């Protein structure tokens, strides 16, 4: 085969910026089919995610229920965790009231809705209630149905279900001349004055109706309720009135019980009945802020965690596991029938590969980058273009010492411009982009070419980026980033690759067919030129996949300050992408998922900041803190179970997963949220990109 002429070492100097509008590939060439996957792959890509989501929901619900039940059991906050037997003063008051003639009714077990309980559940609850009453020395004369109908008439089938357990659903019937029952003092717990209109209206109404039964709830017992009843009972001509007090439970104050028991002294009263709830939870373990139950707020927090963290993680991991076998089987099917080495180029495909490495003030790293390119084991022809983007150091001088083409731009025009200039002079049919502060593994180019040969319908291939070893010295931040890179690439990018829709082809290692660059070029519209280029390619129906075997090593910030500067550029760049490609982004599930991370981050910070205030509402703060710690520990353990297999061969990173979740994830959420808020408010943040510093809004 004739080898293409690459050319001798030469210098170029250009400053022109190239930019072309988006053109759909399918419309670019009428005879060329739009880039799509095979029908079998499309079917798998549609079927596997659905199954994975269903399994993830099932797993999440199971784990969530397990955690919720376990924490409630620990906190003693499940209905029925405390009984009146544990309140001796309340028991004394109830016994004294019974001795004064007050009838005791069982008000369910923990005030549950008996219309939805099975006969077996009803029987169990009644038996438990009877046992508590017996130990308390209280005789239940009737079962007062919780959530009783307003008219007091119990459904016949429900009545039979309860009375089959040997207890009546009605208090003893008295002969009365009245014809009504009502609750005149409902929600009087908020009443603060006798001048309250409710007091006057109820006083007039009760005299007009002359009820045979007066209902009230113990929580509404106060000086106003007491005076209201005293005035009526002492002045009415009615006799045998039944006064029923509902919802006496573990938190009812003994003195209130004793006070209400005095209602038996009125001649107009035929009977006083207390509806006692045997089991419940103490108010100290069920506090409120205003009228809002703190436990309910905590349940909302718990649900937020389950939905935003556990569900996506379960979904992605299950999806990866189900799809991995198919991907491996597909890769194993690729066998070279003519016995060639996989590193050899396919004779039917273009052999010339152009590797492009832009550099700005990279005198310390450019040499290693170029040497790694020259050491590639790819057996086809390879053209190397190094772009000096107006560096002020010795970058150009160092490049000139290597057998590569030097594109020497005297003025710094930015990375996008440098890449576009190199594309203009590149001769290869396959272009591979890399960064000057990164160096490729020896088989990176051959792995990318092999991937393109196996996937004829793919036009771009993303390599895998790993953190530079740096002579074995790794600080805490480096370990964290190593975990982050591995997780992102092995899970998220792997899943995106299944449908050929990778969102970001990394700057350190990406292969592109030349015809893509004939339509799409890099742009300086954002500070994340690689992501912008990738999205423009996706908008042009380009299929983009991943090749995990194509590896490149890059430097990572070693300090928190350096990390912040880098991520500030990345995250603000991603927000810029939303602004530029919004119409496309809102239709892309991965873009929506990424953007939702910003919103979830802000919500998480708000929730976390409010937790101390909520915890202080409880009486047993140490127990609540212990519950939180156990929940956190279980979450970390679950995360390690999910993610740990990725680091089975690297024990150091496996050990670092715990501080990664506790420290690094928290830092990311805080920084992400603050940047997002600055973006939303228009305040913006200064970002340094190359030789330029500007405010991103």
Automatic annotation (TrEMBL):
GO terms for molecular function: glycosyltransferase activity. Keywords: Glycosyltransferase, Membrane, Transferase, Transmembrane, Transmembrane helix. It holds the Pfam family DUF2334. Gene3D superfamilies: Glycoside hydrolase/deacetylase, Spore Coat Polysaccharide Biosynthesis Protein SpsA, Chain A. The keyword Transmembrane helix applies. InterPro entries: DUF2334, Glyco_hydro/deAcase_b/a-brl, Glyco_trans_2-like, Nucleotide-diphossugar_trans. Residues 354-518 form the Glycosyltransferase 2-like domain. It comes from the Archaea. One of its GO terms (biological process) is carbohydrate metabolic process. The chain crosses the membrane at residues 47-68, 300-322, 592-617, 623-642, 654-682. This is Glycosyl transferase family 2. It comes from Methanosarcina horonobensis HB-1 = JCM 15518. The lineage of its organism: Archaea, Methanobacteriati, Methanobacteriota, Stenosarchaea group, Methanomicrobia.
């Amino acid at each position: 085969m004739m080898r293409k002429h690459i050319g001798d070492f030469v210098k170029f100097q250009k400053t022109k910026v190239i930019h072309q509008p988006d053109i759909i590939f399918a419309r670019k060439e009428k005879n060329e089919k739009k880039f799509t996957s095979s029908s079998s792959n499309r079917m798998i890509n549609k079927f596997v995610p659905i199954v994975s989501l269903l399994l993830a929901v099932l797993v999440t619900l199971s784990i969530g229920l397990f955690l919720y039940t376990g924490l409630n059991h620990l906190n003693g906050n499940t209905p029925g965790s405390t009984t009146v037997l544990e309140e001796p003063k309340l028991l004394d008051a109830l016994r004294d009231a019974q001795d004064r003639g007050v009838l005791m009714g069982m008000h369910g077990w923990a005030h549950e809705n008996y219309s939805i309980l099975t006969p077996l559940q009803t029987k169990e609850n009644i038996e438990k209630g009877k046992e508590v009453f017996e130990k308390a020395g209280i005789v239940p004369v009737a079962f007062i149905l919780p959530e009783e109908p307003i008219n007091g008439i119990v459904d016949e089938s429900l009545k039979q279900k309860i009375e089959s357990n040997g207890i009546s659903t009605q208090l003893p019937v008295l002969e009365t001349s009245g014809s009504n029952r009502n609750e005149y003092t409902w929600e009087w717990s908020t009443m603060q004055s006798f001048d309250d209109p409710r007091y006057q209206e109820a006083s007039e109404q009760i005299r007009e109706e002359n009820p045979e039964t007066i209902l009230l709830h113990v929580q509404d017992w106060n000086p106003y309720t007491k005076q209201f009843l005293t005035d009526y009972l002492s002045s009415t001509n009615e006799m045998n009135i039944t006064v029923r007090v509902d919802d006496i439970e573990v938190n009812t104050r003994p003195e209130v019980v004793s006070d209400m028991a005095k209602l038996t002294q009125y001649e107009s009263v035929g009977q006083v009945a207390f509806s006692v709830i045997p089991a419940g939870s103490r108010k100290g373990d069920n506090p409120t802020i205003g009228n809002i139950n703190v436990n309910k707020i905590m349940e909302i927090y718990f649900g937020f965690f389950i939905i935003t963290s556990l569900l996506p993680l379960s979904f992605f991991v299950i999806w990866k596991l189900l799809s991995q076998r198919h991907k491996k089987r597909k890769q194993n099917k690729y066998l070279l029938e003519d016995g060639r080495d996989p590193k050899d180029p396919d004779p039917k495909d273009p052999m010339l590969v152009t590797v492009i490495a832009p550099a700005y003030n990279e005198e310390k790293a450019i040499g290693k980058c170029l040497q790694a390119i020259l050491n590639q084991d790819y057996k086809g022809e390879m053209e190397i273009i190094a772009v000096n983007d107006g560096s002020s150091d010795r970058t150009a001088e160092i490049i000139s010492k290597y057998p590569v083409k030097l594109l020497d731009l005297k003025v710094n025009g930015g990375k996008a411009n440098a890449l576009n200039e190199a594309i203009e002079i590149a001769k290869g049919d396959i272009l591979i982009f890399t960064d000057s502060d990164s160096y490729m593994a020896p088989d990176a180019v051959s792995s990318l070419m092999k991937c393109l040969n196996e996937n004829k319908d793919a036009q771009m291939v993303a390599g895998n980026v790993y953190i530079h070893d740096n002579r074995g010295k790794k600080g805490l931040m480096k370990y964290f980033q190593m975990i982050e890179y591995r997780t992102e690439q092995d899970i998220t990018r792997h899943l995106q690759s299944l449908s050929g829709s990778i969102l970001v082809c990394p700057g350190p290692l990406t292969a592109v067919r030349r015809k893509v660059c004939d339509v799409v070029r890099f742009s300086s519209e954002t500070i994340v030129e690689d992501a912008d280029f990738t999205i423009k390619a996706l908008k042009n129906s380009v299929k983009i996949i991943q090749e995990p075997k194509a590896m490149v090593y890059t430097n990572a910030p070693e300090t928190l300050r350096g990390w912040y500067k880098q991520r500030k550029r990345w995250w603000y760049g991603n927000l810029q992408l939303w602004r530029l490609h919004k119409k496309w982004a809102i239709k892309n599930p991965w873009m929506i998922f990424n953007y939702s991370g910003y919103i979830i981050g802000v919500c998480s910070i708000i929730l976390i900041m409010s937790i101390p205030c909520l915890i202080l509402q409880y009486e047993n703060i140490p127990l609540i803190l212990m519950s939180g710690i156990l929940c956190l520990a279980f979450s970390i353990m679950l995360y390690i179970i999910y993610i740990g297999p990725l680091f089975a061969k690297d024990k150091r990173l496996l050990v670092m997963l715990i501080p990664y979740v506790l420290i690094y994830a928290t830092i990311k959420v805080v920084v992400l949220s603050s940047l997002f808020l600055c973006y939303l408010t228009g305040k913006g943040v200064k970002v340094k990109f190359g030789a330029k510093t500007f405010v991103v809004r």
